[in-house]
Amino acid sequence: MFPPNINNLIELFGKFPGIGPRQAARFVFYLFSKSQAELDELAEKIKEISKQFHTCPVCLTITDNTVLLCHICRDQQRNKEKLCIVEKDYDIQNIENAHIYDGLYFVVGKINITNDQPNALIEKLMETIKNNKNLMEIIIALNPTTKGDAATMYIEKKLKNSGKKISRLGRGLPFGGEIEYADEITLANSFKNRG
Ligand SMILES: [Zn+2]
Predict the structure, then answer these.
(1) Over 70: is that where the pLDDT of 172 sits?
(2) CA 133 to ligand 1 center in whole angstroms
(3) pLDDT for 69-115, tens place per residue?
(4) CA of 128 to the centre of ligand 1 (A)
(5) What SS3 state is found at 10?
(6) By residue range, what is the domain housing residue 137?
(7) How far is the CA of 71 from the centre of ligand 1 (A)?
(8) Helix or strand (DSSP H, E) at 69
């Protein structure tokens, strides 16, 4: 086996989403091939993350510290009548790349639906909805997985009395699929068939 310190590092990389122990070990051994200057630069960049970025106070996407609101919330050309709820920043990236949607977003993250306690993310979502006077439609675009479907139902229940049209993505995406990995045509169909 590897020395304990290397195992610790492998464990840390193994906590990254989608990374198994084998890939984590590959990352660690890749780092061994790097110069001290490159390692220092990487360590510095990681240390700066929390200092250089914050979450947009309106939609909760990760945003550069030089501005308060993210580039989408600041963009006057965006269609303020639509709000699309996604799980991850990455999902926004993919939907934007598909050029199928021009509204606003909200990153709801992984919400805890197992207990019906007041939920900070849902509260924030309600606030964002309340503050947008132009809003007509809320599109719930969570992954079509067991957890994603449960979260969608939970959010639908919470937004029932919001007075807005609530829709969810059509079944263009296969069950168990993820928006993050969906191709543009599949995403376009999901948006078109929402209801
Ligand atoms: Zn924003």
Answers:
(1) no
(2) 16
(3) 999 999 999 999 999 999 999 999 999 999 999 999 999 987 767 66
(4) 10
(5) helix
(6) 62-192
(7) 7
(8) none
